[in-house]
Amino acid sequence: MTRLSIGLVLAASLVSGVALAESQAEIAARLNEEGKQLMFANPPRYAEASAKFQEAHSRAPEPKYFFNHCTSLFQEGKFGEALTACNAADKNADDKLKPKIAKLIERIHEEAKKQNIDLQPVGGGGGPGDTPPNTNPSDPNAPPPPPQQQPQAVGRPPTQGVYTAVAAENTYMWTLGVDLLLGGGVIGREGYFGKVVSGLRVKGDYLLLPSARAGAQAYIQYTHFNPGDTMSTQGYTTLDILDFGFAGYKHICGPRARFCITPLLGVQLAMFSPAGEMDVASGSQVFNYASFGARGEVGFSYALGSRYEHVLTLAPALTAYTRAFTQPDGGYTAAEWGLDRGGAAITLAFGYTYRFNTPFGSAPFVTLE
Fold first, then answer.
1. Which pLDDT score, from 0 to 100, does residue 230 have?
2. Is 79 in a helix, a strand, or coil?
3. pTM for the full model?
4. Which three-class secondary structure string do you get for 24-67?
5. Would 351 be classed as within a structural domain?
6. Is the peptide bond before 43 cis (omega within 30 degrees of 0)?
């Protein structure tokens, strides 16, 4: 009977210990979520969030809690403490978290340098400066006391946030992308140029009205028409077109939808190079005949990634051109090349775009854990 009682007591103690450990982990997870909600409040409540994250990693010292604490401290302008928390997060972080920590540490140093702050990590977060206190000052071999927070390690809160919610929205500030074009069209005099069209477009978007999901696009586009079936003055000729354009667009989709429909209208200056004309002196291709163009497009896109940063697009488009209104002095006329008439092309674009959530030249956002 005695052995049975002792066994029951030991089993109860073990279950109690496991329950207590699970309870601490659950409390830490709840505190972490509460801290994130404080970060996403309007306006954000960074100091309260820091207190939540600190309590979370004091109950369960997981790297993600130190990382979130580093982010909130940085937003408070407490750069030294933030660096210490990031150092603590980096000690046992996995391969997914380590790059984010490195990115945030780099951002901390950049902001501190901008504010002329001599940045050193301070104790309390498990960083390099977090050493045991010297409990015996008379012992020369005792470790030194932990460094205290210095006023110069605290600065102004950064004006640009560095974090984003896990449940990101389908929005951005600017983008860079590329499209491959395939299609057909007719341009110039009948038969002078072929009807098969291929090309490449490099583009950049800027979201001017985030609430309306409307923006502007600048692009450079190269288009090639294959040789025609009628011999022109110079034989069977191809036509290369270099476009410099601006367009306006609007995304039609919800704030967290990954699929969007995007109508676009643009205008462009088109430069023609019939038969791949070359400059004899430089050996480079020349575009001596100018025209105006217009582009209408409807894009169907799907966004991938945790913050919708990778976008795949399929976009049918119609591009129309006027006749050439300039021609080189002493060269063939636009009429001799068949460019005294305009034309149009219908293409299908297959594109990839990367979205940025910060101003030009800034470090990208990190995602809270």
1. 66
2. helix
3. 0.58
4. HHHHHHHHHHHHHHHHCCCCCCHHHHHHHHHHHHHHCCCHHHHH
5. yes
6. yes
